[in-house]
Amino acid sequence: MDWGMKNRISRIIKPEIGRTVMLAVDHGYFLGPTTGLEEPRKIIAELLPHADSLMLTRGMLRTSVDPMNSVPIVLRVSGGNSIIGDDLSNETITVSVKDAVRLNVSAVALSIYVGGKYEHQTLKNLATLVSECEEYGIPVLAVTAVGKEMTRDAKYLSLACRIAAELGAHIVKTYYCEDFEKVVKSCPVPVVIAGGKKIPEKDALELAYNAIKDGAVGVDMGRNIFQSHDPVGMIKAVRSIVHENVSAKKAFETLKI
Ligand code: R5P
To answer: Which atom of ligand 1 is nearest to the CA of 143?
Structure first.
């Protein structure tokens, strides 16, 4: 791995502890004005000081983030569908690597849909993106997206994560599940978890705690932070779990809800 690649990864996964709190606000790329993200600039400004990186689309980056910001950017570069469209897995690469370089991002993110209607297309997208990004030393985060009809068990998620790593992804994002440690063990690159749909704060913190305990290097969490009654409190609570191994119970007690 070359210097630039290592340097960019170390901006996201903090080398001192090997952990990361990624803030995901890219949902609008297929959900439109997602609850909690109606005014992206405002919520991003509030949450950014507590995030190790920010994951979002090119449009949101340009319009809603101060270019003087020093928090590393993870740019979503796949899309091309919507929640009311034909099939969520029908994604393409939406941003050139040249533009990602121009935007000075620390990594790019792309979804794969293993078992989905357009599985082959999304896996090909990943392979193509990794090959292009290797030329510039830009890490690729593969998002193991799960369609409505797909299960989220260890067998399926291990399959998706391992394929992502085999195709060259540098970091993999997946969902927490029973026997999650098996998913992590069979994936040779760092794994972060998504939070998924909004659930009670206590449960989301337990999810983060268990994921770390079972081997995830961190979270790439969105709705359970920006849709919380106390978004800033929630990201700080998640951060204390990821970075300081605070228990979910103790982290929950700090919330103003
Ligand atoms: C999909 O919409 C995106 O990749 C999200 O960033 C991802 O699902 C993480 O966000 P959440 O914690 O809301 O699931």
So the answer is: 4
